[in-house]
UniProtKB/TrEMBL annotation:
Pfam families recorded: AhpC-TSA (PF00578)
PANTHER family: ALKYL HYDROPEROXIDE REDUCTASE E (PTHR42801:SF20), THIOREDOXIN-DEPENDENT PEROXIDE REDUCTASE (PTHR42801)
Name by which UniProt lists this protein: thioredoxin-dependent peroxiredoxin
Source organism per UniProt: Tautonia sociabilis
GO molecular function: thioredoxin peroxidase activity
GO cellular component, one term: cytoplasm
UniProt KW keywords: Antioxidant, Disulfide bond, Oxidoreductase, Peroxidase, Redox-active center, Signal
């Protein structure tokens, strides 16, 4: 736009608004109240963070896409290493923006004995600040939430092949799942 057109618009009392890409949703921080969620699981049940308040810690492990390499390793690790989590007072979930149908089939394929949550609209992923800005997928991030709904740790460096064992170790370190 030339300078004279810009001046003419201003003189006419019109503002020029330049569209910018929407800012990425900010991820909550350790010590923040965890965003509420109500999501359907691969087991057909619906889970809400409020269901566990005052009762047990919650692990919410986001992954990008069902049936892809790293996500298959991560969700399989939770299935095969789940015995390390079952003795702890924790509700643990993996979650993605895939449909319930896709995650149900995916859970079966990886032998998941825990619910894989579906957020197909991405609203909860956005509230947790993990929704990719250029694609409707979640980034791989694990949130550790205590019984009071407070985020006690956030892990962005996930070893997909050891995710279940690493989660159990982190919960013990935090002392929030006892």
């Amino acid at each position: 736009m030339t300078r004279s057109i810009g001046h003419a618009l201003l003189a006419a009392g019109l503002a020029l608004v330049i569209a910018r890409p929407a800012a990425a949703q900010e991820m909550p921080k350790v010590g923040d109240q965890a965003p509420e969620f109500t999501l359907k699981g691969s087991d057909g049940e619906t889970y809400s963070l409020a269901d566990f308040k005052g009762k047990k810690a919650v692990v919410l492990a986001w992954f990008p896409k069902a049936f892809t390499g790293g996500c298959t390793k991560q969700c399989t690790a939770y299935a095969t290493q789940g015995e390390l989590l079952k003795d702890l007072n924790v509700a643990y979930f993996t979650a993605s923006t895939d449909t319930v149908e896709d995650n149900t089939a995916f859970a079966k394929s990886v032998g998941a004995d825990y619910p894989i949550l579906s957020d197909p609209g991405g609203a909860v992923a956005k509230a947790y600040g993990v929704l990719m800005p250029d694609r409707p997928l979640a980034r791989r991030v694990t949130f550790y939430i205590d019984k009071d709904g407070i985020i006690r740790a956030i892990d962005t460096m996930i070893n997909t092949e050891n995710a279940g064992a690493d989660t159990a170790e982190k919960l013990k370190e935090l002392g929030i799942a006892e």
